[in-house]
Amino acid sequence: MILSKSVAPTVPDYADTSLRKRVLRRIKNRPTTRGAIVLLGILLLLALFAPFIAPQNPHDLASLSVMDNRLEPGSQGMTGITYWLGTDAQGRDMLSAILYGLRTSLLVGLTSTAGALAIGVLAGLVAAQFGGAVDAAIMRIVDFMLGFPSILIALVLLASIGRGVDKVIIAIILVQWAQYARLMRAAALVERRKEYIEAAVNFGLPTRHIMLKHLLPNSIGSVLVISTISIASAITLEATLSFLGVGVPVTQPSLGLLIANGFEFLLSGEYWIAAFPGIALVLLIMSLNLVGERLRRSFNVRG
Amino acid sequence: MTAYILQRLIQSVLVLLAVSIVVFLAVYGIGDPIELLVPPQVSAAERAAMIRRLGLDLPVWQQYLSFLGSALKGDLGTSFVHGVPALGLILARLPATFELVLLAMSVAAFIGVPLGLLAGLNPESRPSRAIMAGTILGFSLPSFWKGMMLILLFSVFLGWLPTAGRGETVFILGVPTSLLTLDGLRHIALPALNLAIPNMALMIRLVAAGTTEAMTQDYVKYARAKGVRRRRIVGRHVLRNILIPVVTVAGMEFGSLVAFSTITETVFAWPGMGKLLIDSIYHLDRPVVVAYVMLATLLFVAVNFFVDVLYAALDPRVKLTGDMA
């Protein structure tokens, strides 16, 4: 159940189903990968159902009690609830904050990856199909974007447009589309040389039809495989930007911002405010990386 | 060859120009710097005089040209906060960052290469699998959180190492360094380790993949058939062949380490140029942000240029004539 939920969308729509079955079997048979898939499924469910699971609504200031601030894990609050992971400086239950933070982190990671994927795939497809000056122009921009570390571009961009969930998503799309464009172009160029495309061209099918119905489905596989790892890097990037103070707003804290809030209390030994959101973040990133890495190896994609 | 170098040089200059336009529009175009520079109680006449003096009444393209003109003369503006030239401010912080990056790279190489060899020689063994799993962890730990956990472990719980700053520095050839004092070394240990870990994971993966592949090559089989000892095959033949891509990647990673040191410097309050960038962003010190971006761009463009030219010089397969698309 969980397996089909989290893996099926990343498996490319290959005509060759035996390869898909083989790969799926190989993924399932690796205990580490299986563990990562289960963990990823649990984290997704926790994020999805956070409002029903969380003991407290961390965004509702009325439900917080400042008297309960910075309590150790396992402490009993004024209202009688037990803070299993302690509380932060506002008296917020860390467990609830982490569950809601997981939601924000995943929202940003998934949305920005989807956006970057759409733009990158389109740009790569257009570059491969039309070639010449169009290709040169697109690839120049791609080379230019990939020449700089993503964190630097996103940091400077957000420093000038300000913080916000939508703005972080825009910044991550801007730094991530280029790698998809490059992969998509390479795959589509290989595909274009094949006979069925030639046949379609000779058949007089419109270019748009060839691009969307033939080229796109047959060359998108490698891009989708890479996207699992890219979700992990999008989530890391968002967390880092939020830590640096240019990411998500304080009213909708992601895991990165929760960690940042705990930084000032670290030196006095109040470790739980920064440590627990960090563990949740690492589990999320690591499970994505493990699944992505296994997918990449199974499909033999370089990128 | 000369034509190729010339072409790449023109490309590099165009990239710098493009970045300068984008950065100028992004950083200067948004918001009104006058709000920050002029105290609110100043009269309208004085305000107008100030706007004229700073050239902010001119059209955008004229402002850009004057920015470009002074940039070419090495003047990237004056810091709003510190009141000194932005470029000088950044250059003064450069040694601290370079020291951190160089130490991190050395640590990554000296630990990463042997571990990668070990993992690559017996890819299916238990220790090798543990090492490769460790690299996934190395990639997955977000730099800032890992830094905090290092502080928590080594400074708060164990009390062995300091949490912030550069410690005692000594001047070598007029450049301050922390590497030659015990106190300085104690201060640089954690930030350097933090910066080194993802790079170490990268080195391990590169070396391991290269070793596994190299061991199946004909020259290894031939050496083995000749009766050369395994140790000598690995040390002499395999290592030499895999070090070429490793050195290339290490060189190209230099730029990204400088960028990533921004995060490590922020966590460990290391007074380098990355910390300066973050502080300048907080204080809306635009000239410093612009100067940092221009300097970083120059660095990346220069590194890419030299890598490309070196490749062209070393690898006969790289085409040297025009058309690079």
What does this molecule look like?
Chain A has helices at 2-7, 17-29, 31-48, 50-53, 94-130, 132-146, 150-161, 165-192, 195-202, 207-219, 221-243, 255-266, 272-299, and strands spanning 75-76, 82-83. Chain A has 303 residues and is mainly α. A two-stranded antiparallel sheet of chain A has the order 1-2. In chain A, strand 1 and strand 2 form a beta hairpin. Chain A is elongated. Chain B has a single domain (86-314), classed as MetI-like (MetI-like fold, Orthogonal Bundle), CATH 1.10.3720.10. Chain B is built from twelve helices and two strands; from the N terminus they run H-H-H-H-H-H-H-E-E-H-H-H-H-H. Chain B has helices at 2-29, 33-37, 44-53, 60-72, 86-121, 126-140, 143-157, 182-214, 218-225, 230-267, 273-282, 286-314; strands spanning 170-172, 175-177. Chain B is globular and about 90 Å long. Chains A and B meet through helix 6, helix 7, helix 11, helix 12 and helix 13 of A and helix 1, helix 6, helix 7, helix 10 and helix 11 of B.
Task: Jot down its keywords.
heterodimer, A: mainly alpha, B: 325 residues, MetI-like fold, 12 helices, 2% strand, globular
Précis, in short:
The complex is a heterodimer of chains A (303) and B (325). By secondary structure, chain A is mostly helical.
CATH class label of chain B: Mainly Alpha
Query: How large, in whole angstroms, is the Cα Rg of chain A?
Result: 22 Å
Distance between the termini of chain A: 29 Å
Instruction: Give the amount of beta strand of chain A, in percent.
Output: under 5%
Structural class of chain A: mainly alpha
Number of strands of chain A: 2
SSE class of chain B: mainly alpha
Radius of gyration of chain B: 25 Å
Q: What is the total number of structural domains of chain B?
A: 1
- Unreliable residue runs of chain A: 1-11
Question: Overall mean pLDDT score of chain B?
Answer: 80
Order of strands side by side in the largest beta sheet of chain B? 1-2
Quaternary organisation of the protein chains: heterodimer
Order of helices and strands of chain B: HHHHHHHEEHHHHH
Beta percentage of chain B is: under 5%
Name given to the CATH architecture of chain B: Orthogonal Bundle
- Give unreliable regions of chain B as ranges: none
